[in-house]
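sry for the spam today, last one i promise. C-alpha coordinates for design, 345 residues
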Protein backbone atom coordinates (compact mmCIF):
# COMPACT_ATOMS: atom_id res chain seq x y z
CA UNK A 1 0.00 0.00 0.00
CA UNK A 2 1.40 3.42 -0.95
CA UNK A 3 1.67 6.30 1.49
CA UNK A 4 0.10 9.67 0.75
CA UNK A 5 0.56 12.63 3.09
CA UNK A 6 -1.99 15.42 3.19
CA UNK A 7 -2.42 18.86 4.68
CA UNK A 8 -5.77 20.60 4.47
CA UNK A 9 -5.35 24.23 3.41
CA UNK A 10 -7.12 26.80 1.26
CA UNK A 11 -5.77 29.62 -0.88
CA UNK A 12 -7.65 32.05 1.35
CA UNK A 13 -4.95 31.48 3.96
CA UNK A 14 -2.43 33.14 1.61
CA UNK A 15 0.41 31.91 -0.59
CA UNK A 16 2.93 32.10 2.27
CA UNK A 17 0.98 29.54 4.30
CA UNK A 18 0.51 27.38 1.19
CA UNK A 19 4.28 27.48 0.57
CA UNK A 20 5.04 26.56 4.14
CA UNK A 21 2.51 23.67 4.06
CA UNK A 22 4.16 22.32 0.89
CA UNK A 23 7.55 22.54 2.63
CA UNK A 24 6.25 20.66 5.66
CA UNK A 25 4.79 17.92 3.45
CA UNK A 26 8.03 17.60 1.50
CA UNK A 27 9.94 17.10 4.76
CA UNK A 28 7.37 14.57 5.95
CA UNK A 29 7.45 12.41 2.81
CA UNK A 30 11.27 12.46 2.74
CA UNK A 31 11.45 11.42 6.39
CA UNK A 32 8.75 8.73 6.27
CA UNK A 33 9.89 7.20 2.97
CA UNK A 34 13.56 7.51 3.95
CA UNK A 35 14.40 9.20 0.64
CA UNK A 36 18.05 9.84 -0.22
CA UNK A 37 18.29 13.27 -1.84
CA UNK A 38 20.39 13.99 -4.91
CA UNK A 39 22.76 16.99 -5.05
CA UNK A 40 20.58 18.62 -7.71
CA UNK A 41 16.78 18.29 -7.85
CA UNK A 42 14.79 20.34 -10.38
CA UNK A 43 11.18 21.21 -9.60
CA UNK A 44 8.76 20.32 -12.41
CA UNK A 45 6.16 23.05 -12.67
CA UNK A 46 3.56 24.51 -15.03
CA UNK A 47 4.00 28.27 -15.55
CA UNK A 48 0.35 28.78 -16.54
CA UNK A 49 -0.89 29.89 -19.94
CA UNK A 50 -1.09 33.61 -20.61
CA UNK A 51 -4.54 34.78 -19.51
CA UNK A 52 -5.00 31.91 -17.03
CA UNK A 53 -5.34 33.20 -13.47
CA UNK A 54 -5.81 29.96 -11.52
CA UNK A 55 -2.45 28.22 -12.08
CA UNK A 56 -0.36 27.55 -8.95
CA UNK A 57 1.36 30.87 -8.27
CA UNK A 58 5.16 31.10 -8.19
CA UNK A 59 5.13 32.09 -4.48
CA UNK A 60 3.58 28.73 -3.59
CA UNK A 61 6.86 27.04 -4.58
CA UNK A 62 8.97 29.11 -2.14
CA UNK A 63 8.71 26.52 0.63
CA UNK A 64 9.98 23.73 -1.64
CA UNK A 65 12.88 25.93 -2.80
CA UNK A 66 13.70 26.94 0.79
CA UNK A 67 13.73 23.27 1.82
CA UNK A 68 16.24 22.39 -0.91
CA UNK A 69 18.40 25.50 -0.45
CA UNK A 70 18.62 24.93 3.32
CA UNK A 71 20.15 21.54 2.49
CA UNK A 72 22.48 23.06 -0.16
CA UNK A 73 20.69 21.15 -2.92
CA UNK A 74 20.84 22.89 -6.28
CA UNK A 75 17.45 23.42 -7.87
CA UNK A 76 15.71 24.98 -10.86
CA UNK A 77 12.28 25.03 -12.49
CA UNK A 78 11.94 22.60 -15.38
CA UNK A 79 9.26 22.52 -18.11
CA UNK A 80 8.69 21.53 -21.75
CA UNK A 81 7.22 23.38 -24.70
CA UNK A 82 3.55 22.90 -25.51
CA UNK A 83 2.08 21.46 -28.69
CA UNK A 84 -0.64 23.99 -29.41
CA UNK A 85 -0.35 27.57 -30.67
CA UNK A 86 0.83 29.61 -27.70
CA UNK A 87 3.80 31.66 -26.52
CA UNK A 88 4.71 28.56 -24.55
CA UNK A 89 5.42 26.57 -27.72
CA UNK A 90 8.88 28.17 -28.18
CA UNK A 91 11.58 28.36 -25.49
CA UNK A 92 12.21 32.08 -25.96
CA UNK A 93 8.60 33.18 -25.54
CA UNK A 94 7.89 30.42 -23.02
CA UNK A 95 10.52 31.99 -20.74
CA UNK A 96 8.83 35.37 -21.16
CA UNK A 97 5.52 33.93 -19.89
CA UNK A 98 7.32 32.27 -16.96
CA UNK A 99 8.90 35.60 -16.03
CA UNK A 100 5.61 37.49 -16.37
CA UNK A 101 4.07 34.93 -14.01
CA UNK A 102 6.80 35.50 -11.42
CA UNK A 103 8.95 32.37 -11.86
CA UNK A 104 12.20 34.26 -11.37
CA UNK A 105 13.66 32.98 -8.08
CA UNK A 106 15.64 30.06 -9.55
CA UNK A 107 16.92 29.26 -13.07
CA UNK A 108 14.59 27.71 -15.64
CA UNK A 109 15.30 24.79 -17.96
CA UNK A 110 13.11 24.14 -20.98
CA UNK A 111 13.89 20.45 -21.28
CA UNK A 112 13.01 19.87 -24.93
CA UNK A 113 15.00 22.71 -26.48
CA UNK A 114 14.09 25.81 -28.47
CA UNK A 115 10.96 24.34 -30.04
CA UNK A 116 10.59 20.83 -28.73
CA UNK A 117 13.18 19.22 -30.96
CA UNK A 118 15.41 17.77 -28.18
CA UNK A 119 14.30 14.49 -26.70
CA UNK A 120 15.54 11.13 -25.49
CA UNK A 121 13.85 7.92 -26.60
CA UNK A 122 12.94 5.97 -23.46
CA UNK A 123 12.23 2.30 -24.03
CA UNK A 124 9.13 0.94 -22.28
CA UNK A 125 7.74 -1.79 -24.58
CA UNK A 126 4.10 -1.25 -23.64
CA UNK A 127 0.88 -1.72 -25.62
CA UNK A 128 0.87 1.64 -27.45
CA UNK A 129 4.52 2.66 -27.30
CA UNK A 130 7.75 0.74 -27.51
CA UNK A 131 9.63 4.00 -26.86
CA UNK A 132 8.56 7.48 -25.72
CA UNK A 133 9.96 10.90 -26.57
CA UNK A 134 10.87 12.57 -23.25
CA UNK A 135 12.47 16.05 -23.12
CA UNK A 136 16.22 15.53 -23.35
CA UNK A 137 17.29 17.51 -20.29
CA UNK A 138 15.28 15.25 -17.98
CA UNK A 139 17.93 12.60 -18.60
CA UNK A 140 20.50 14.79 -16.79
CA UNK A 141 18.83 14.24 -13.40
CA UNK A 142 17.88 11.23 -11.28
CA UNK A 143 15.29 12.96 -9.14
CA UNK A 144 12.59 15.59 -9.52
CA UNK A 145 10.03 17.20 -7.30
CA UNK A 146 7.07 16.83 -9.63
CA UNK A 147 4.45 19.38 -8.67
CA UNK A 148 0.97 19.29 -10.16
CA UNK A 149 -2.09 21.45 -9.97
CA UNK A 150 -4.91 18.94 -9.45
CA UNK A 151 -7.96 20.03 -11.46
CA UNK A 152 -10.28 18.96 -14.28
CA UNK A 153 -9.12 18.38 -17.83
CA UNK A 154 -11.28 18.34 -20.96
CA UNK A 155 -9.73 15.26 -22.56
CA UNK A 156 -8.20 13.37 -19.63
CA UNK A 157 -11.00 14.01 -17.09
CA UNK A 158 -8.56 15.26 -14.50
CA UNK A 159 -4.96 16.43 -14.45
CA UNK A 160 -2.57 15.56 -11.65
CA UNK A 161 0.77 13.83 -11.25
CA UNK A 162 0.21 11.24 -14.02
CA UNK A 163 -0.67 13.88 -16.57
CA UNK A 164 2.17 16.12 -15.41
CA UNK A 165 4.61 13.25 -15.94
CA UNK A 166 3.18 12.43 -19.37
CA UNK A 167 2.35 15.73 -21.05
CA UNK A 168 4.75 17.70 -18.87
CA UNK A 169 7.83 15.56 -19.51
CA UNK A 170 7.02 14.52 -23.10
CA UNK A 171 8.67 16.58 -25.83
CA UNK A 172 6.44 18.19 -28.47
CA UNK A 173 6.70 15.03 -30.53
CA UNK A 174 5.78 13.01 -27.46
CA UNK A 175 2.73 15.19 -26.90
CA UNK A 176 1.75 14.70 -30.53
CA UNK A 177 2.10 10.93 -30.17
CA UNK A 178 -0.09 10.91 -27.05
CA UNK A 179 -2.84 12.86 -28.78
CA UNK A 180 -2.65 10.70 -31.86
CA UNK A 181 0.26 8.92 -33.38
CA UNK A 182 0.10 10.91 -36.62
CA UNK A 183 2.57 12.82 -38.76
CA UNK A 184 1.95 16.51 -39.54
CA UNK A 185 0.97 17.74 -43.00
CA UNK A 186 1.46 21.12 -44.69
CA UNK A 187 -1.64 22.97 -45.81
CA UNK A 188 -0.50 24.25 -49.19
CA UNK A 189 -2.91 27.20 -49.27
CA UNK A 190 -1.57 28.61 -45.97
CA UNK A 191 2.13 28.05 -46.69
CA UNK A 192 4.15 31.16 -47.59
CA UNK A 193 7.28 29.10 -48.53
CA UNK A 194 9.31 30.87 -45.82
CA UNK A 195 11.29 27.68 -45.22
CA UNK A 196 11.39 27.91 -41.39
CA UNK A 197 9.99 24.39 -40.98
CA UNK A 198 12.54 22.90 -43.39
CA UNK A 199 15.40 24.67 -41.58
CA UNK A 200 14.31 23.25 -38.22
CA UNK A 201 13.42 19.73 -39.30
CA UNK A 202 15.93 17.32 -37.73
CA UNK A 203 14.97 14.53 -40.17
CA UNK A 204 15.29 16.43 -43.45
CA UNK A 205 11.71 15.38 -44.16
CA UNK A 206 10.38 18.66 -45.58
CA UNK A 207 10.48 19.82 -49.17
CA UNK A 208 9.53 23.40 -50.03
CA UNK A 209 9.43 24.36 -53.71
CA UNK A 210 7.53 27.04 -55.60
CA UNK A 211 5.02 24.40 -56.69
CA UNK A 212 4.71 22.26 -53.61
CA UNK A 213 5.38 22.07 -49.86
CA UNK A 214 5.23 18.64 -48.31
CA UNK A 215 6.40 16.40 -45.51
CA UNK A 216 7.72 12.96 -46.37
CA UNK A 217 5.96 10.67 -43.84
CA UNK A 218 8.63 8.00 -44.33
CA UNK A 219 11.37 10.37 -43.13
CA UNK A 220 9.33 12.30 -40.53
CA UNK A 221 10.07 11.21 -36.95
CA UNK A 222 7.04 13.05 -35.52
CA UNK A 223 9.04 15.49 -33.37
CA UNK A 224 6.50 18.30 -34.07
CA UNK A 225 9.23 20.97 -34.33
CA UNK A 226 7.72 22.18 -37.63
CA UNK A 227 4.38 22.82 -35.93
CA UNK A 228 6.16 25.10 -33.44
CA UNK A 229 8.17 27.21 -35.86
CA UNK A 230 5.51 27.78 -38.57
CA UNK A 231 4.12 31.22 -37.89
CA UNK A 232 1.45 30.86 -40.56
CA UNK A 233 -0.41 27.96 -39.02
CA UNK A 234 0.27 25.95 -42.16
CA UNK A 235 1.50 22.76 -40.49
CA UNK A 236 -1.51 20.76 -39.44
CA UNK A 237 -1.82 17.97 -36.93
CA UNK A 238 -5.37 18.34 -35.74
CA UNK A 239 -8.35 17.32 -37.83
CA UNK A 240 -11.52 15.37 -37.13
CA UNK A 241 -9.50 12.16 -37.15
CA UNK A 242 -7.17 13.41 -34.44
CA UNK A 243 -10.04 14.70 -32.28
CA UNK A 244 -11.75 11.30 -32.30
CA UNK A 245 -8.42 9.56 -31.88
CA UNK A 246 -7.69 11.66 -28.81
CA UNK A 247 -10.78 10.53 -26.96
CA UNK A 248 -11.52 7.38 -25.01
CA UNK A 249 -9.42 4.63 -23.53
CA UNK A 250 -6.47 4.60 -25.96
CA UNK A 251 -5.79 8.26 -25.10
CA UNK A 252 -5.90 7.50 -21.37
CA UNK A 253 -3.62 4.56 -21.92
CA UNK A 254 -1.15 6.56 -23.99
CA UNK A 255 -0.95 9.14 -21.18
CA UNK A 256 -0.26 6.46 -18.57
CA UNK A 257 2.42 4.86 -20.77
CA UNK A 258 4.18 8.20 -21.25
CA UNK A 259 4.04 8.79 -17.49
CA UNK A 260 5.65 5.39 -17.04
CA UNK A 261 8.47 6.42 -19.41
CA UNK A 262 9.00 9.76 -17.64
CA UNK A 263 9.23 8.11 -14.24
CA UNK A 264 11.41 5.18 -15.37
CA UNK A 265 14.61 5.04 -13.31
CA UNK A 266 13.84 8.25 -11.37
CA UNK A 267 13.42 8.71 -7.60
CA UNK A 268 10.72 11.35 -7.81
CA UNK A 269 8.73 13.05 -5.10
CA UNK A 270 5.22 14.17 -6.07
CA UNK A 271 3.42 17.20 -4.64
CA UNK A 272 -0.18 17.83 -5.76
CA UNK A 273 -1.88 21.15 -5.05
CA UNK A 274 -5.64 20.50 -4.97
CA UNK A 275 -6.40 24.22 -4.84
CA UNK A 276 -8.31 26.36 -7.32
CA UNK A 277 -9.82 23.17 -8.76
CA UNK A 278 -10.91 24.44 -12.16
CA UNK A 279 -12.85 22.50 -14.83
CA UNK A 280 -10.00 22.80 -17.33
CA UNK A 281 -6.22 22.83 -17.10
CA UNK A 282 -3.68 25.65 -16.76
CA UNK A 283 -3.00 25.51 -20.53
CA UNK A 284 -6.40 27.19 -20.92
CA UNK A 285 -5.77 30.91 -21.28
CA UNK A 286 -9.14 31.98 -19.94
CA UNK A 287 -10.36 32.97 -16.51
CA UNK A 288 -12.12 30.05 -14.84
CA UNK A 289 -14.06 29.59 -11.63
CA UNK A 290 -13.27 26.59 -9.37
CA UNK A 291 -15.78 23.72 -9.54
CA UNK A 292 -15.38 22.81 -5.90
CA UNK A 293 -13.75 24.11 -2.72
CA UNK A 294 -9.99 23.98 -2.07
CA UNK A 295 -8.94 20.63 -0.58
CA UNK A 296 -5.26 20.98 0.32
CA UNK A 297 -1.80 19.69 -0.61
CA UNK A 298 -0.71 16.07 -1.05
CA UNK A 299 2.74 14.43 -1.13
CA UNK A 300 3.83 10.92 -2.10
CA UNK A 301 6.44 8.97 -4.02
CA UNK A 302 3.66 7.18 -5.94
CA UNK A 303 2.08 9.21 -8.79
CA UNK A 304 -0.95 6.90 -9.01
CA UNK A 305 -1.65 6.87 -5.28
CA UNK A 306 -1.39 10.66 -4.99
CA UNK A 307 -3.78 11.19 -7.93
CA UNK A 308 -6.22 8.60 -6.56
CA UNK A 309 -6.17 10.33 -3.16
CA UNK A 310 -6.84 13.74 -4.77
CA UNK A 311 -9.56 12.24 -6.96
CA UNK A 312 -11.25 10.65 -3.92
CA UNK A 313 -11.14 13.80 -1.79
CA UNK A 314 -12.48 15.95 -4.64
CA UNK A 315 -15.29 13.39 -5.04
CA UNK A 316 -15.96 13.58 -1.30
CA UNK A 317 -16.25 17.36 -1.65
CA UNK A 318 -19.15 16.77 -4.05
CA UNK A 319 -17.47 16.88 -7.49
CA UNK A 320 -16.96 13.64 -9.38
CA UNK A 321 -14.38 14.03 -12.15
CA UNK A 322 -13.94 11.78 -15.19
CA UNK A 323 -10.67 9.95 -15.77
CA UNK A 324 -10.84 6.84 -13.55
CA UNK A 325 -9.64 4.81 -16.56
CA UNK A 326 -6.23 6.50 -16.43
CA UNK A 327 -5.77 5.43 -12.82
CA UNK A 328 -6.82 1.85 -13.57
CA UNK A 329 -4.51 1.52 -16.57
CA UNK A 330 -1.63 3.26 -14.77
CA UNK A 331 -1.90 0.69 -12.00
CA UNK A 332 -2.12 -2.15 -14.53
CA UNK A 333 1.17 -1.15 -16.16
CA UNK A 334 2.74 -0.78 -12.69
CA UNK A 335 3.24 2.96 -12.67
CA UNK A 336 1.96 2.88 -9.08
CA UNK A 337 -0.84 1.71 -6.84
CA UNK A 338 -4.43 2.92 -6.36
CA UNK A 339 -4.30 1.47 -2.91
CA UNK A 340 -3.08 4.11 -0.47
CA UNK A 341 -2.97 5.10 3.16
CA UNK A 342 -3.69 8.78 3.70
CA UNK A 343 -1.94 10.47 6.62
CA UNK A 344 -3.03 13.98 7.53
CA UNK A 345 -0.46 16.26 9.11
S1 LIG B 1 7.16 27.29 -41.87
FE1 LIG B 1 5.01 27.19 -42.50
S2 LIG B 1 4.77 28.81 -44.01
FE2 LIG B 1 6.98 28.47 -43.77
S3 LIG B 1 7.47 26.98 -45.36
FE3 LIG B 1 7.01 25.81 -43.55
S4 LIG B 1 4.83 25.33 -43.69
FE4 LIG B 1 5.25 26.95 -45.16
S1 LIG C 1 8.48 17.04 -40.60
FE1 LIG C 1 8.46 15.52 -38.99
S2 LIG C 1 10.61 15.33 -38.38
FE2 LIG C 1 10.44 17.23 -39.55
S3 LIG C 1 10.10 18.83 -38.00
FE3 LIG C 1 8.07 18.15 -38.71
S4 LIG C 1 7.49 16.53 -37.26
FE4 LIG C 1 9.72 16.86 -37.02
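last one done:
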Amino acid sequence: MSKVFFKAITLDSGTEKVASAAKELLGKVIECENIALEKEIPIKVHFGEKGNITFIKSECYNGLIDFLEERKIKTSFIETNVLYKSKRRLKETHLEVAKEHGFTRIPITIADGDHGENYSEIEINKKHFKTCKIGKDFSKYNQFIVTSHFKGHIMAGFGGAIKQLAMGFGSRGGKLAMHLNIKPKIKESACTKCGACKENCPANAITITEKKSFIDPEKCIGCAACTAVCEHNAVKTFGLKSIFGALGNPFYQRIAEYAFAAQKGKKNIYINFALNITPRCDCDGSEMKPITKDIGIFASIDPVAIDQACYDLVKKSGKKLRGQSILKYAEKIELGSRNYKLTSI
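The chain has a mean pLDDT of 91. ok im logging off now
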